[in-house]
Amino acid sequence: MRKSYGIKSHGILKLVLWCMLVIYAGVACMSLSSCGTAKKERGQTEQAQSLYAGKTQEADVFIEIPDLRQYGGYTCGTTCVQMLMNWIDPYNSDLNLATYEEELGTNEEAGTPPENIVEYFEENEVKISAKEKRTTDDLISALDRGHPVLMCIQAWSSSEEGDGYNTTDPNDADTYLTEGHWVICVGYQDKKGGYVFYFNDPACVGHCMMSEKDLDERWIDMDARGKIYDHYGIEIEEDVEIYDPDGIFYLE
């Protein structure tokens, strides 16, 4: 009887130990899985934080304008006009970029000259104010009025040395104001270290931002004929109410 009892006890003990082992292995597996997931999520968060300079929700003022992407290296001005016209007159101005290129006289050699843009806006009865020698205070005031500002700056340097932009030395013709680019300033944020400005940038999927210091230094450009545009901006003085960033069109 004792022998039989001992065998049964031993079997039960083995069963208990086996169950405990299974449970422990499961918990360990879950722990390792959770740890791996946590590490992955943390890594993704850190990557996102290092990738982006900020968020549009952090802006004190931000004007929602359709965000479109240019093609090629010379259609930034045309794409900016396309974005603005789709903001001012949605649907009716939803023309393809090639149409805007033709109407603005855009070409690979000269891009889109400021006078062509001004003429296009005037012909389409868009209220604007185009001038040079603007300041960042002027920019803030325009944005406070709900007016985006189309501007030509130096951006996306192609310098392999990474030495920035030549905005001061015209004697070096190979680098002087050779990185011209059209962007639309659509917002700003007042930070402890100074203002930062937000842009619809046709060369970037999404939005971009720049410090007040960098903007002040790079807010200059030169056209194909050698004319300098120093702190030049075209303020869009339209009071737009019809555009809805969440609106959708019916697919006819």
Core attributes:
38% helix, 18% strand, alpha+beta, single chain, 252 residues, 9 strands
Kindly name the structural category. alpha+beta
Distance between the termini: 89 Å
Overall average pLDDT: 85
Oligomeric grouping of the chains: single chain
Which regions are unreliable across 5 or more consecutive residues at pLDDT < 50?
1-19, 21-39
SSE run? HEHHHEHEEEEHEEE
Percent of residues in beta strands? Answer: 15-25%
Helix content: 25-40%
Backbone shape: globular
Describe this entry's structure for a reader.
The chain is of the alpha+beta class and 252 residues long. The chain is built from six helices and nine strands. The strands form two sheets. Strands 1, 2, 3, 4, 5, 6 and 9 form a seven-stranded antiparallel beta sheet that branches. α2 crosses α3 (97-104). The radius of gyration is 29 Å and the shape is globular. The model is unreliable at 1-19 and 21-39 (pLDDT under 50).
Question: Any chance you could write out the topology, listing elements then pairs?
Answer:
Elements: H1 2-51, E1 61-62, H2 76-88, H3 97-104, H4 114-123, E2 128-131, H5 136-144, E3 149-154, E4 180-191, E5 194-200, E6 207-211, H6 212-218, E7 220-222, E8 228-230, E9 233-236
Antiparallel strand pairs: 1-4, 2-9, 3-4, 3-9, 4-5, 5-6, 7-8
Question: What's this entry about, in short?
Answer:
With 252 residues, the chain is an alpha+beta fold. The chain is 38% helix and 18% strand. Helix 2 crosses helix 3.
